[in-house]
Amino acid sequence: MQSRRYRKVLLVLLIGIVFSTWMPERLNGFDQIVSHQTGRLQGAKMEDDNPSSKVLEFSISVPKNKYFRGEPIYLRGSLKNISGQAQYVNERFFVQDSDAAKVDWGIVLHIFSETGKQVDFGIRREMPGPSAAWFVAIEPNASLVREIPDDVSPFIGEEGKYRITAFYVSHIGPDIAGVDAWQGVVQSNTLTIEIV
Question: How many domains does the chain divide into?
Answer without folding.
Answer: 1
